[in-house]
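Exercise 7. Predict the structure of DNA repair protein RecN from Flavobacterium jumunjinense.
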Amino acid sequence: MLLSLSIKNYALIESLEIDFSNQFSIITGETGAGKSILLGALGLVLGNRADLSALKDKEQKCVIEAHFLLSNYNLEAFFKEKELDYEQQTIIRREILPSGKSRAFINDSPVNLAELQALSVYLIDIHSQNETRELLNEEYQFQIVDAVAKNERRLESYRKGLSLLNKATKELNKLIAEKESLSKEKEYNTFLLEELLAAKLKAGEQAELEEELEQLSNVEFIKENVDKALSLANEEQLGTIITLNEIKQSFQKIAGFSKEYNDFHERIASVSIELQDIMDACFSNSEKIINDPERLGFVNVKLQSIYMLQKKHQVTTVEELLAIQNDLDSKVLRSDDLDAEIAKKEKEKADIVEKVDQVAVLITNARLEASPILSQKIEKILALLGMADAKVLFEIKETDTYTKLGKDAINLLFTGNKGMEVGAIKKMASGGEMSRIMLAVKAVLAKYSKLPSIIFDEIDTGVSGEIANKMAIIMKEMSQNMQVFAITHLPQIAAKGNQHYKVFKYNVKDDTLSELKLLSHDERVVEIAEMLSGKNISDSAINHAKELLN
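Solution. The predicted structure, encoded as tokens:
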């Protein structure tokens, strides 16, 4: 429920603070007095977008603050989900800075417009003339029926199931697409894999094979030089080993004379041992160096195979070829495994469909049961509004299509005349009839909806006399279940309010300001009399106003 509204530096309003009651409140004023400004300010608090044109003084910020009483509306979960502090008396503040930037706060916690708009859905319904066309909207028609059918929890369960169904469908389609793609490539991938497997590749073997190829291709040259080295080292007269041994013996003879000569002897002895070891290894190697055309051919073929595969797969190493081999192996195996995964996912989806369909049937049955009750209630109110022959029918049909609203299609049918067949409301109802139907719908919903407040912005357009009086009675009855505001030009409606506020403009020097004032009883008499007879108020208008108020 809206407890109070504070407006500073907005449009024609310099500063305004007003309190409201939980009953039926009337707002009147001449055209252009500022009623739309009041709704605009409230709209900003509820999350509408703002711009600098809203500022009265472009050098000062605009601040709009609304206090709402939230007890008994079960909004704690919403605040917890949004990580906001819950207060039974919640304060929403909107600031528009001279720079054009806008800020919003809920209980002094900064929020974005999306969060503000999400909360506003639970706070207040501002119904203008244009919103009467909501009756033509399928989603709104479902909202009306579902409120009476008490489908809120069923729809919540259904939407959770639908989310799982959409997820399972997406995953299944992805698996099927992957299967189709791999099936097309499987034969080629298998060929490539077998080709790589046949090559029997090993990490690091390319460098080894290239080195071996170099040796096998130059075997005679290598053997010639190894043998020459062995000959030079082991020649009987001038061989390197013989000469080195003689040098070693010479230093051995004088090693005892000084530490330096002894070091020379030890170092030469070490060199002698190392050289002998090298020559022994060379001799062993020389015996293995043979001309092997068969091995040369094998190594050459193996390397050519590796080079061909590298060129084919556009890589430069055996390790990269092995990575491609592993990937191809995975793809071939994946193609074989997908059938089992698809079957499993299809079973999972079928189970979800079964559960979602069960809830959808409950929703449909509740709608079919509620729709005639809803029609009867609306028709009863329409009869009070001068439409005794009106017929309203909510046509519910089951479909195979899953939407966020269930598996039904809905069509609101109407006729205002006796003996005429019902038809689509957009073709059958006039503007005045649409206004009365919407009021009837809102009146019914007031008993089912948990919405704290509603504002009717000139819903009485196009009606007068006794019909206006009946509309006022209906809105008054609605205020027993919720806070109701009516912006009106009709005295019959204005007289039914528990409180009456007047919007008016006045001039201060060269400035025009707008103000909202709570009228006393005597001021209400004058206001309603003026609504009856104009600025020149007659005695009969005063008496008529008093009669209406009484």
